[in-house]
Specification:
By secondary structure, the protein is α+β, with helices and mostly antiparallel strands. It is built from 4 helices and 3 strands. It has 2 domains: 36 residues, no CATH class; 57 residues, Chorismate lyase-like (Chorismate lyase, 3-Layer(aba) Sandwich), CATH 3.40.1410.10.
């Protein structure tokens, strides 16, 4: 609640107050600025859900059709929750890219494995 009160007091929040408003800052950057605990990590969950009427209208999609829902739980260094961000996207207008890598270390050849 305290973080919410500090966020509400930031002048940039007025720019984001209206549904569909656009700004140069993200809410998460404002959360980090208003918090005394910087964001260290986030847990993300992506799923599909049927669009509620209000969400469908905002995304230009018929109600009941699937939309992409992404939940991100931002945490501090002690893994305490800072913010839960829930976003919904039109699936035809969203792309997501991630690079998955194994642990970086000596190659098998460097270790003498043949």
């Amino acid at each position: 609640m305290e973080l919410g009160r500090r966020l509400r007091g930031l002048p940039e929040m007025a720019d984001l107050a209206e549904p569909g408003a656009r700004g140069r800052l993200t809410v998460i950057s404002l959360v980090e600025r208003a918090s005394h605990r910087p964001i260290h990590s986030a847990l993300q969950n992506a799923t599909a859900e049927a669009a509620a009427a209000d969400t469908a209208r905002r995304l230009g999609r018929p109600a009941g059709l699937p939309v992409l829902r992404i939940d991100r739980l931002y945490r501090d260094r002690e893994l305490k929750p800072l913010e839960l961000a829930v976003n919904r996207f039109h699936p035809d207008r969203y792309s997501y890219r991630i690079q998955l890598r194994g642990r970086v270390g000596p190659s098998a050849q460097d270790r003498g494995v043949r």
